[in-house]
Request: fold
Amino acid sequence: MASRAEPLDVGGRRDWRDVARDAADLALLGILATLAAAPLLTAAAAAGTASAAVHDWTRTGGWPSARTTLRRFGRAVLPGVPVSLLALAVLGLLAADLAALAAGRVPGGAPVLAVIGLVAAALAGYAGLVVVEAGRNGGGRWRVAARSSVRACLDAPARWAALTGVTAVAGLLAILVTPVVVPILAGYTLAALHAVANRMPVRIGVGSREPAVARPELP
Reply:
């Protein structure tokens, strides 16, 4: 990854080369995060570490070093195992319910299917904010991230809806695009989640807030 996006003029304006560099960096981040999450039990650690990298990028314009990233991932693996198991269980349950309703094996039909779909989308939006919060905490502290995300969603329902929209669009694209492109999409989705979340003050830890600073241009 490029260490830092450098402005090309005194005014600090960025041109297409900077945007292309950022796009390539985010694509590489998504691929690396997907590879790190392949064992499934490391999925939370991979997501948190990638989110921490995007957080650094949005705050400073530079990516963390490989040593920092590996250290974050190593620290996050064991604490992230329960989170990975919980996420997999919730995904499996929702997928089974949706499949059963779509096939007509469970009564309720289209209305219940629509309700469960909306609930799943809202949960995905909340989960997206949890991942952002975890990145702001250095890639871990999932309980703190989960609690502060609940407060943030209740304080700003419109932002929750926006995060839900980001995850819904990303899910739709993941179904439509070639499977080999899905890891690249993961990096862009993570950047989009941070861009939306950075437009509101989000609690970091207990009793503290971090001012929202959004990167002006995202690919």
Observations:
- The first helix runs from residue 16 to 37.
- The chain is about 70% helix and 0% strand.
- Confidence is low (pLDDT under 50) at residues 2-10, 202-219.
